[in-house]
Amino acid sequence: MLVTLSALSAPSCVASTEESPCGDPSAISVDGTITRGASEVIVSSPHNIEGTLRSDVLIDRVMVGGVLAENKGAGNYASWSASLERQDLEGGRTPGEGVSEIEVVAWDYCGNPHEIGTVVLPVGDAPGVSVTGLELLPIELPGGECYLPADGQAAAIVKVAADARSAGSSVKLHASQGSFSGTAPTLELTLARDGDRAAALAYFASTAPGTALLSVSAGGASAAPRSVLVSGPPQITPSAKTIPLGTSYLATVRTRGNLDYCVVEASQPDRSQAAIVEPALGIIDRVMSVKSDAVDCSAAEVLRVEVRFAPEALVGAEVVLRCVDTFGQEGTATFTAGET
């Protein structure tokens, strides 16, 4: 998760020192190079594609076709790689031609895509398809949410459908991370007649924050993948800070999911306060709902919380800030009054 914080010596500095974590996309510099994976001969699976990336913003993920790349560098996808199976190569096939076009796209934490390049791979003639009309339906997330928690305590419903004549055929689900029905990242299902179609379902959960890519294949057939955002608990930065008496400090609460409420516990509530200044929600009086009416995971949710101790507060007084997301995951930070 991208975390942004600002330190203030007085409340009057808030407006002049704070900037949005998501600026003008045209001002963001992201570029990269595909260093391995090009081929002039027909490729087999798994086929590896590798590259490098340079960015002045934090990168959420690098997509190689429908595959989530692995971060191989010291951080921020400075070096990445992806292993493409046959269904991934078939997913990029140009209709009527024996080539597959694999696009490489980096996504930053503000939801902006950055095209890195395209690899055109010879893949030969299309294989025979025993399952027709194969489709991975929209993922059903619990509670009408747009993400899953990274504590593995909530699961999404994943449903595969195909033409009715495909009933009885086997299909294979694959996840880039997480597991299906509490077992493994790969699960084989048998399609059963479901009205005028054939279908099967499974449950998906994850304990790893990030973006999970779900795909399905059956023999030579494949369908467009689906992505599931998996968010860890809200992050409060800093998680601990000493603030001189009579001054304030601006902390950042950030989550890739959706916040529900924030709680303040103060040892000297009459001589300290915590207020949400961005958006301007005001002082947190023990418990404050921060849940938005709209369910939106297109970008990280960010709160700015100003914590202040009065000059007459006792050294060592504490303010504990807790923020909880809509699945009950909690982030905590402790602020302590220090000498002026």
UniProtKB/TrEMBL annotation:
Superkingdom of the source species: Bacteria
Protein known as: Uncharacterized protein
Naturally occurring in which organism (per UniProt): Sorangium cellulosum (Polyangium cellulosum)
